[in-house]
Amino acid sequence: MNIVYFHAGKRYLTDSKVTALFEFHYFILAQNIIKRATKVWRLTGISFTKHSPTGVILAGIVVLFLPTALYAGAKSLPNKDLNAVLLPQAVPLSPFQLSDHNENSFNLEDLQGHWSWISFGYASCPDVCPVILMHLAKSRHQLSELLSADQLPDVFFISVDPNRDSLTTLKHYTTNFDKSFMGITGTNKQISIVEDQLGAFHRADTHQPNPHSAHDKHLSYKVSHSTDIFVVDPSARLIARLPQPLTADKASLLYQAILTHTKHYASNDAGLVQ
Fold it and tell me: d(Cα 8, Cα 265) in Å, to the nearest integer?
């Protein structure tokens, strides 16, 4: 499977998840070094031609040590990035009962037959939730140009604030980022059942006023919650967690790498083959 990563609106192709991560970070690091070097050269006025001995010497130093510096900075990234998101083994989810923003029942069967990204938050979240959903929308758009329909993840935003987030509110909020996004909620007890299975949490901070919330002081509060993106496979098994900060480009890259690992989950009891 070819893996495509994005940077500055351009696409880069490789045939290995490890190579992709290495090349991606190598590219970013190299770009930053070149930008800084160019700035120094412009300030000093050093000319890099055969008629400028100083320029030739400096250029030689850069050529000699740049590969070593880049490799040292990038060689540990693949294992770190992949191990940080992949679970040692797939975790089958148990039955639960919630409601989607179209007022339909949402349960375990709704996570079967397709890949899913699950995010927790709430509609009056002042900062974190909008940024996360914005990146997920961009990443999903990128992936839609690269993956088949059965590999493209459906995005579910589970509100942990059922007291304020009605289904109508959730529908307007989630579809504002992407028309395909689905808002989900339920009672606090129902939400906790899903959170416990995924390793998520939330807590209403009633003593911390939220300026983006309702004017009623009893409804003006912030909610602390998990910000990871939970990746669930078509068999409704938790496969990975994408931690924050997570850009759209990184989400696209990591998700493609995760897809290549699905062959390692031969059964519910099989661990990840290294």
Answer: 34
